[in-house]
Write a structure and sequence with these properties.
Elements lengths: L3 H14 L4 H6 E6 L6 E7 L5 E10 L4 E8 L4 E7 L2 H18 L5 H4 L6 H4 L3 E3 L4 E6 L3 E10 L5 E10 L5 E10 L1 H13 L9
Helix pairs in contact: 1-3
Length: about 200
Amino acid sequence: MTLEWFDRISGELQDHLTSICDEYDSNGSMIVERGSKHPRIEFYTELDDNERDHFASVFFDPHNQEFYLESFEPELGQISRVILADIEEIVDAVHEGFHDYMEETDYEDDADEFEENEDTVTYEIDVEWETPEVTAYSKENEVEVTYQFGIVQETGDGVLKRINRIRTANDDLLKDETNFIFSREEASTIIAMIASHMDKLSEMD
């Protein structure tokens, strides 16, 4: 099982998406997540409060060397998979998903819709993210926990962002984001405390 095909398509996909349509060029973005059992490419729009609103996820099956989309079928009570044979089919699927999303969502009011979940502390400061989102735990089609580390430009403090994504039975994606700010001295203390008690921690299940 190799990710060579996944990496190649991921690298070429951004160039193909630039010509998808003017509306996508203005609002659409993508991010590659390689850490889970089935790597994926997430497509999203950037909201006014720096929040990401995901509208499509293209997964990759390393064993079968194929890309696919997933959707929940209410009548059957199960998740179906649509295989995407080549990069053209991936682009078409993303394009269709983007316009479905734009039709269902009032893009100009998205910031108000997510204001209740906004973490005003970290959005008001300038953070330079040193790492991409790193997957710490993933259970396929159910839950994913990722972390991202950054530096507060004004103070030099560290920021650890934890994002918890849960897929409901109705195929809705629930997202919870937590940010923890700490100094260099605190970082060394936290690392030492965790390392001393790792054997007492249980695994996620």
